[in-house]
Structure prediction request, 658 residues.
Amino acid sequence: MKRKVKILGTGSYVPKRIVNAQEIDVIIGKTEGWSEKKSGVKQRYFVEDETASYMGAEAAKSAIEDANISLSDLDCIISASGTNEQAIPCNAALIQKQLGLEGSGIPCFDFNSTCLSFVTALDMMSYAIDQRRFQHVLIVSSEISSVGLNWSQHESSILFGDGACAFILSHSNEASGIIASKMETYSEGAIFSEIRGGGTKIHPKNYSEQSANDFLFDMDGRAIFKLSYKKLPDFLEGLFNQTGLTVQDMQMVIPHQASKSAMNIIRKKLGVKEERFMSIIENYGNVIAASIPLAFHEAIRAGKLKRGDLILFLGTSAGLSIGGIILEY
Amino acid sequence: MKRKVKILGTGSYVPKRIVNAQEIDVIIGKTEGWSEKKSGVKQRYFVEDETASYMGAEAAKSAIEDANISLSDLDCIISASGTNEQAIPCNAALIQKQLGLEGSGIPCFDFNSTCLSFVTALDMMSYAIDQRRFQHVLIVSSEISSVGLNWSQHESSILFGDGACAFILSHSNEASGIIASKMETYSEGAIFSEIRGGGTKIHPKNYSEQSANDFLFDMDGRAIFKLSYKKLPDFLEGLFNQTGLTVQDMQMVIPHQASKSAMNIIRKKLGVKEERFMSIIENYGNVIAASIPLAFHEAIRAGKLKRGDLILFLGTSAGLSIGGIILEY
Prediction:
């Protein structure tokens, strides 16, 4: 049964500093054109002085304006990011503070399923909103990947960017809603994308020249793709079987912006034309959990989506997880 | 309306190593008896070789046995902890792997609201379970505080312990259910309990002798207590007003095991007798988000609770947040 939620507004923030493919080529010591050819990323943004909570709050303010509500209308603030600003407290509380809502009492907490964090938060919160626990929930994904990249691992370091995106997810008795959703986790692929350090297993106090790489992102792109590609057909069948719909009924597929080559293969596998498969990786890189909401936000801004359209959010994440949501916008 | 969920089973795991108050006195250079008098903690457990995912999986296995279901009956695995094993992937995926479910596809993700993570997960997942998205959800809190304590900050370091607790939360048409719940966050208190480092703001690569304390827990207990004590009456009124109940209808109050002195003041404020206010801090210390589920688990093991009893979960966390759930066991 469709969960009665509506994406009332969206907003984004990107850091001031644009980093183009040529700059990346220099960093990694390759000839000009190498990183763009390999990753499909023409440019991405890296933070200068911006913090995750600052970016998240800026994206949130835009989403609030877009939704035509006030800050005081919010009754829940959620951070749904693969990266955190600090170990304690949760990002959502830091975003609340940045929004000047420090005395409001609006509940704040975080979801984490790495690149799928936003999709998971949207999926799970739709039940609480449908049941009228909350009227207007702010879901923010604010990601700083640049600080944790391993520049000696070219395959991963050339892909990522920083940025934030926010949705206002609201209760609605209109046609809008989440029609179906599904998530699967195969931890046989847990080691395919990791930052092994930074938690209780390899605490920052163990940081040294020898352990430095444990605190940086480590990815085996080929293994991730192989496992997720194998699982995808059954996953999609399970997702669409909850509905009377097929992927051809989707006005737009909004995929996780993992890498251009992976996205191309998935698009062909789905049998979806380019104009119905939103790609922003060229201009933003992979912005971790902010990728899917940002691609959706850009599709709206570009006039590619209208109310009533059926949309598929589809992504993978460290875990390894696959997640999807079919919604009516 | 009561959400149709039932705590079908509970389980716990504590590390092999017991650390008594005398050992703590030696670590912090105080005379024997000082730390116990100050904190009320006679002993706590610290990990030796245990990881968070190992402890979480052990607690989960006990809960599954207690619930009389099989591993394969799980349809969602959630980690609800204030600490993480590693930065990527999420704890829940690592717990799935420890459980030997790496090929199962069971969805895995994390909630984080620091010490309230478990309460938040219970609260939010109750909507998805009530709406039949899931039948049996494993919620695990597995905490390793010992690695992040600042032994020069006596006020906080003498309080904490390590350990894990797990619930099987299941759909049920019986009387069991969540009757009411509430959460409030006041980020004016965000700086009262922090680990400033470890995220994107102060990345582990900035670790040095000078920055070392930024990677350890920093707490102003007096400020936390003052703010939460001020907010508590209105919070409780808002929580109980959703019901026809009062705190006197509760068979048992299960508070966050923040500190013995704070718990005593809260108990008196609530007007609840000692036998109806579960305290395990003497034997476990403050086990972060595992505190409330572990106190509940111990209350059941001690025969203090039976099906049909009304119970209040009540806690505070970094953020600063206050959270509460009224449920029928």
The longest strand of chain A covers residues 5-13. Chain A touches chain B through 76 residues (CB under 8 Å). Residues 5-173 of chain A form a domain with the Peroxisomal Thiolase; Chain A, domain 1 fold (CATH 3.40.47.10).
